[in-house]
UniProtKB/TrEMBL annotation:
Protein name: Uracil phosphoribosyltransferase
Protein's job: Catalyzes the conversion of uracil and 5-phospho-alpha-D-ribose 1-diphosphate (PRPP) to UMP and diphosphate.
Source species of the chain: Winogradskyella luteola
Primary gene name: upp
Top-tier EC class: transferase
Similarity field: Belongs to the UPRTase family.
Length: 216
């Protein structure tokens, strides 16, 4: 797997990551969602540099401007509910993408002994020969990402796969690196060292779904 950890090169992205982690700032759920969206836009921009581009002429009122445009048929798939703001950010840039949504949650929330991933809802167009972008903001164990990909298999074989996450734990990054093909890309804004015994990323930011959508 090609791992692109954007925080290795300090940029304005660090400011947005700092804000979503900061317990005094993250309480503002509108700002939290907007920051995740902004991170999605930056990750999308970086990802776009690896897409397939072809020459294109644009007729302006005064002449012809030569450029290159990407020609990928993109399907953007996100995991409900925490994935929604990240999905919005990616969709701001890949505005012609088809969209897929899946609900996947950790059984753990109901049964503390279990880390099993439960998939209940799935809406997805054909993935055959398309560019699949699979977005999950918190890559903790990596199991949701892998369970989602398994659930998407009946929809066809994508030409290429890009995984997009905001914060990951090293364990989750290693897990997806083993589960996906070597030519899969992971675009991630930060990677933390550890997980706690409940599967939360440490230091991470807490529960991204609760921060974005209430349940304080
Ligand atoms: N999901 C979250 O929202 N936070 C974590 O730390 C791990 C998974």
């Amino acid at each position: 797997m090609h791992i692109h950890n954007l925080s290795e090169t300090p940029s304005i992205l660090n400011t947005f990551i700092a804000e979503i982690r900061d317990k005094t700032i993250q309480k503002d759920s509108m700002r939290f969602r907007r920051n995740i969206e902004r991170i999605g836009e930056i990750l999308g921009l970086e990802l776009s540099k690896s897409l397939h581009f072809e020459p294109h002429d644009i007729e302006t009122p005064l002449g012809v401007s030569k450029t290159e445009l990407h020609k990928n048929d993109i399907v953007l798939c996100s995991i409900l509910r925490a994935g929604v703001p990240l999905h919005s950010g990616l969709l701001n840039y890949f505005d012609a993408a088809e969209n897929a949504f899946i609900s996947a949650y950790r059984q753990h929330k109901h049964n503390p002994e279990s880390f099993e991933i439960v998939v209940e809802y799935l809406a997805c167009p054909s993935l055959e020969n398309k560019t699949l972008i699979l977005a999950d903001p918190m890559l903790a164990t990596g199991q949701s990402m892998v369970a989602t990909f398994e659930a998407l298999k009946p929809f066809g074989t994508p030409k290429e796969i890009h995984l997009v996450s905001v914060i990951g734990a090293q364990k989750g990054v290693d897990y997806v690196a083993k589960a996906f093909n070597a030519d899969t890309n992971l675009w991630i804004a930060a990677v933390d060292n550890t997980l706690n015994d409940k599967g939360y990323i440490i230091p991470g930011l807490g529960d991204a779904g609760d921060l974005a959508f209430g349940n304080k």
